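Service request form, structural biology core

Requester: graduate student, group of Dr. S.
Request type: structure prediction, single chain
Budget code: on file
Notes: please return the result as structure tokens.

Sequence provided:
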Amino acid sequence: MAVKKQKVNWNFQGKDFTDISQFPDGIIGFVYKLTFSDSTYYVGCKQIISIRGTQSNWKSYNGSSKPILEALKSGEIKITEKEILEFAISKQELLYRETLRIICDRVLEDEQSRNGWVSCKLYKSHIMNPKPMKITTKRKTKKKL
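Core staff response, request fulfilled:
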């Protein structure tokens, strides 16, 4: 008998997010926490809109960590919860909020965490005065002669 995969939706404060229209205006991404069947977790961030205005694979996104993706594929673990922790209006704000969560929540010091590292380069001006990401149309490429 085949095991039916259970779909876990992104959740923010008790509300499932299944469509991009549910996000607040101007939001380009979110910081998240994935919780797994073995009681471990992972904190990361996901951009939902590209600079070109195209929607990402946020609905089916399970992280970018190779060890986690391999453990999910092998069936070693399953995702039990996809929690949106906070939203961001720019890439810089998204990176800042993810890093702040990982450091301030002491994620790297927690044995239950699957996070292995954190790295970022931020500018104070982007933190003190965040500006929404500008969405542009696709650029026309120049033809080579």
